[in-house]
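User: I need a structural model of DUF4034 domain-containing protein from Streptomyces cellulosae for a docking pre-check later this week. Nothing fancy, just the predicted structure tokens so I can convert them on my end. Input:
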Amino acid sequence: MARDGARPAYDPAGHDTELRAALQEVRTGRWMSMRTLLERTTPWWQWTQRTQVLAAAAAGTDVVRAWLAEEPHSVPAAVMRARVAVERALRARRESHRRTHQLWIEAWDVSDAATRAAPRDPVPWICLLALAQLDRRQLWVEHRAAPPAPMLPAGPWGLLAEADRRDPYNREAHHRMLQFLYAQASSERLAEAAGFAHHVAESAPPGSALHMLPLYVRVERYRRGGGRPAALDLHWVADDATREAGRAYEAWFERADPAERSPVDLNHLAHALWGALRFEDAARVFEAIGPYYTPLPWAYRAAEPGDRSEAAQIFLQARARSRSAAHGPDA
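Assistant: Understood. Predicted structure tokens for DUF4034 domain-containing protein:
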């Protein structure tokens, strides 16, 4: 149990100690620990999560290039090359970098090559799906495929289907689809994102992290509205928000393998349950989080959105309030 009042730490590896060790090596420009870790990573959920976190650390280094120079036929290295290229392209778009288009095309090329190098792996298809958000006008044919349900818009559904075929209900693949819908930037598109989130959550099996999708859309709706923290409080006590938080708790948190719960999902659920005044349930989620909080969604409540220091303080306040309500002031 995390000590009450202990300062939370942001660590992208969360409770994954093996991943944390590999990340430390990657940040210093060494790739052997990454290779060893990925060689013994077998479940697709864990492979997807670890390659994503490693790519975020490797994107500012030449570590994957060095790996490929030593092992040019390594399939994991080819997948990591795609991951890193996509991470760089997305960062360039966020920073409005002049090389964004060039990095996008380069990332598409290596991701497409990775689909052939690793034909059973969902990650190369997730990479292509992640890049779809850069095509905001949907000029590419593969980004305006017919949807699987009438209330959904045209989009990169074929890419999502390819990822889903290899790893049904893959968490990141569906979040990348949400990001594509967000990138269209209109309030109408956000309604479509909400429709997609509910459509997926209704069909997801018990224990799937996809039951969390409606909570992410709800946070995005608030973020785009530019509301203040007081408005966010009212946002979560609405009946539909309370129901969404309760469904996510029951269908995901209570049914999922604890090892598969991602830190960012746990933090979004704790935030939703606390906002919905479901303190006993929130207290249980906070205990599962332990010391590894994530700045989002807490930073959206900060006076200056994105302030990580204030986000950590808000997390502490929410944790203390939930524990106190659930177990008494001496908890």
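Before docking, keep this in mind: The first strand starts at residue 9 and ends at 10.
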